[in-house]
Amino acid sequence: MASRDEVPQECVVWVDVIVPVHNASGTIVETIESAMHQIIPPDVALGPRLDVCVCCYDDGSTDNSWSLLKQLALLPEKKEEASYVGGVKISTRLLIHKSESGISRGAGYARNQAASLRQRFELNDATTTTNKPNQYYFLCLLDSDDVMHETRIAHQVSTMLALPSDDARHLTLLGCQFDRDPPDSTWHYAHWANHLLTPDRLSLEQFREITLLQPTWMLSRSRFDQLGGYIEAPAPKPTTFDAAAATTAANESALEEEDMKHEDTNSGNDWRIYKLIHPVHDTVQTLRLAEDLRFFYAHLHAHGRLQRMASSIGPLVTYRHRAGMSQSSSTSRKLLLQLRVKAFEDNILLQQQQQQQHEHNHNRWKRGFVVWGAGRDGKDFVKSMRPELRDRVVCFVDVDDKKIAAGHYWNPNWEKKIPIVHFSWLASNPIQQEELHNSWMNEDQSNCVHGRINKKRPCPTNNGGDDDNDNDTSRVKDTTTCKVPEVSSTPPTENSTRDSPPLLLLSKQKTTAIVRTKSLGRDFLKSLGSMPVVVCVAMYRTNGVLESNVKSIGRTEGLDLWHFS
Questions:
Q1: Which pLDDT does position 256 carry in this prediction?
Q2: Cis peptide bond N-terminal to 412, omega within 30
Q3: pTM to 2 decimals?
Q4: 3-state SS string over 63-110?
């Protein structure tokens, strides 16, 4: 397999910048020009020549986006030679096409069409492909209202070529940091995606949100083709439209695609293209939405890897916020939740079951698991699960006496009551479990809630700005900083049991919580110490209390513990 040092100097690296366009007349010119005017900085050594096609597909725009694209396409092909030693050239041109019918089919369809333009206009001529190694052909994703920084392609191509093998390039979805316009829009997400996600957390937090922003993606053309591109909604009928019949047809077609086997050319094994389509909640209309989320999980399902450019490079994309104009703003929170829950079911609960049965290992997720967080997020997660998998939820855990005192969560549509207990019962270490429980018994929650979620931005540093201590959550304005107790070196004795009287006078609420917890039986409570856990409480919002509590229960993230909210 060719490594970075083995890439032939005479090789041409092809990069297609994929831009779906729909009513983007206010931004499309700046977007295209940013992609057309890429440079190679002096600190990036690229041996091959870069051949860049900016591929735009107009998806039924009703403004003058198409006219602007035609004007831009009249510009001469841009060829530049880098000034540093090595003589690297960037050849750049613009390829455009539009919907024949003038009917919008959605961003997924538009991206697929844009990705086909080089093939449609240039690669039909066999003379252009004779010296074209597939592993040096990359797709660079961009939205029609965003802006690429001038060194983005050079930096991302250099990183892809530096990967150790062709297989690594094929399996890698590469992102980068981004800045926001306006600067403070979606601040929490931008800070999380740019700074809090260390390399290992790109995968570990995959069910909280897409950990690599789609307009920052670069991936190999072979990977895009292997995954079948983006999911497309069926074309609307120009005649009388039967929504129910069309929805059924769309779902059946998608499920048929999901069942089609494809040969994995890298491993020689059979595998299935994963299509994230909800069998109940997806419709012809919703299949136009969340194309990034659907592709993201298809990539991970097929053993894909996630990587982000080094933070020292800085942002390479400006991600612009247009209120009410983006597709993401029209995608409901409920749909995103349902799709993420289905992805969790398919990729963790069901896939792990198949893998472990094949390996003759015990499937811990099959016998039951615990949901951490009895608030809105935890309940919504459980409600969104398919019934046969929802039955695996053994209980909720929480830190709030009020929720625990309620005893259980009951939904009128279910026959099952789900108990709610304190998180201390999850500790796998008996000594730690005892310490955590005693700490809770003696905790006064009359003035504060242990680990309360704070939605404010971190406090400014002394220099007036946010520093780069990415994992420092101590700067959040939250007074509820109760710490998890240290594990005692002395094991509990027969007299130091959960039935021991508390050191402080207990509130009525806490007393009720303790009594209802005990009614579940010691065997049930002790079994929780080995149960897998799904954490449905937002991270990085509690002065580190949540993270400390989660660490205290002795689970391994990515194996028997996943964060979801």
A1: 46
A2: no
A3: 0.85
A4: CCHHHHHHHHHCCCCEEEECCCCCCCEEEEEEEEEECCCCCCCCHHHH
